[in-house]
């Protein structure tokens, strides 16, 4: 029995993301996530799909330690979130790149300042910020927009800024929650291509989406969530219908 536990423990540490029988119950015993087990390898690209209320957003919030699980163990990049002290949470969150549907840019800051802000938050030296921010803006195709304010950009450009901010500190994980939800099909495809390029550089990527067309086009691992757990897990394929 002890040997089995040690084997499972070591295996969990070999994954970039490991959820082991994780549940999250709210009031009246309703389970947003129910006995969820998920393993994501380092460098993997995973789409997470499912109807509203299937537990996708709750899973993201658990991974960001915005919520605490009712039961189960969550391990991210070798760190057990269950035992993480409160004071360690901000540093942990800064180690993960996050992209959301609504961009969440600072409206009175320029493109450069929005991206640099993420580096200031981790107390990066000024010389590194001056070198790294232009590099990342070039990667996302916004070198010429560095002085622009968010309101002067298209939706696709704003999401590129959000992605640049998410990756400027070279996180090992990128969590994207409906990153193309506010974009037209052309911009949505370009944003997903950009996220794919980030994945090719070695970053582990988890994308929550309702966009069937994109899932079908990119042919990655697809996880279908239903009633707070994984209904189907396809190694490589298109959108999984409920």
Provide a short characterization of the protein structure.
The protein is built from 8 helices and 10 strands. With 242 residues, it is an alpha/beta fold.
Number of helices: 8
Order of helices and strands: HEEEHEEHEHHHEHEHEE
Strand line-up in the sheet with most strands: 6-7-8-3-9-10
Largest sheet: 6 strands, mixed
Radius of gyration, in angstroms, nearest whole number: 18 Å
* Global mean pLDDT: 91
Report strand %: 15-25%
Broad shape: globular
Residues in helices, as a percent range = 25-40%
Strands, total number: 10
Give me the secondary-structure category: alpha/beta
What is the CA-CA span between the terminal residues? Answer: 37 Å
Unreliable residue runs: none
Structural overview:
The structure is a single chain. The chain has helices at residues 2-14, 56-63, 89-94, 111-121, 126-139, 155-167, 185-200, 212-218, and strands at residues 17-25, 31-40, 45-49, 71-76, 79-80, 96-100, 173-177, 204-208, 221-226, 229-234. The chain is of the alpha/beta class. The chain has a domain at 106-169. The protein has a six-stranded mixed sheet, with helices on both faces. The mean pLDDT is 91.
Question: Which terms summarize this structure?
Answer:
single chain, 242 residues, alpha/beta, six-stranded mixed sheet, four-stranded antiparallel sheet, 8 helices, 36% helix, 24% strand, globular
SSE inventory with pairings:
Blueprint: H1 2-14, E1 17-25, E2 31-40, E3 45-49, H2 56-63, E4 71-76, E5 79-80, H3 89-94, E6 96-100, H4 111-121, H5 126-139, H6 155-167, E7 173-177, H7 185-200, E8 204-208, H8 212-218, E9 221-226, E10 229-234
Parallel strand pairs: 3-8, 3-9, 6-7, 7-8
Antiparallel strand pairs: 1-2, 1-4, 4-5, 9-10
């Amino acid at each position: 029995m002890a040997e089995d536990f040690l084997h499972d423990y070591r295996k969990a540490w070999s994954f970039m993301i490991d959820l082991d029988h994780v549940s999250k119950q709210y009031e009246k015993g309703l389970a947003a996530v129910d006995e969820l087990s998920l393993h994501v390898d380092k460098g993997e690209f995973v789409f997470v799909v499912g109807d509203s209320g299937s537990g996708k957003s709750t899973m993201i919030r658990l991974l960001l330690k915005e919520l605490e699980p009712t039961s189960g163990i969550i391990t991210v990049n070798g760190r057990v979130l269950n035992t993480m002290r409160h004071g360690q949470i901000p540093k942990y969150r800064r180690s993960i790149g996050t992209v959301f549907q609504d961009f969440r840019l600072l409206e009175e800051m320029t493109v450069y300042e929005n991206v640099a802000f993420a580096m200031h938050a981790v107390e990066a030296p000024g010389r590194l910020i001056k070198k790294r921010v232009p590099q990342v803006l070039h990667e996302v195709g916004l070198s010429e927009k560095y002085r622009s304010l968010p309101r002067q950009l298209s939706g696709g450009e704003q999401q590129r800024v959000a992605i640049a901010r998410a990756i400027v500190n070279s996180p090992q994980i990128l969590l994207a929650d409906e990153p193309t939800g506010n974009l037209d099909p052309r911009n949505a495809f370009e944003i997903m291509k950009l996220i794919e390029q980030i994945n090719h550089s070695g970053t582990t990527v988890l994308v929550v989406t309702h966009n069937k067309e994109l899932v079908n086009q990119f042919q990655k691992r697809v996880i279908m969530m239903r009633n707070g757990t994984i209904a189907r897990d396809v190694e490589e394929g298109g959108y999984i219908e409920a």
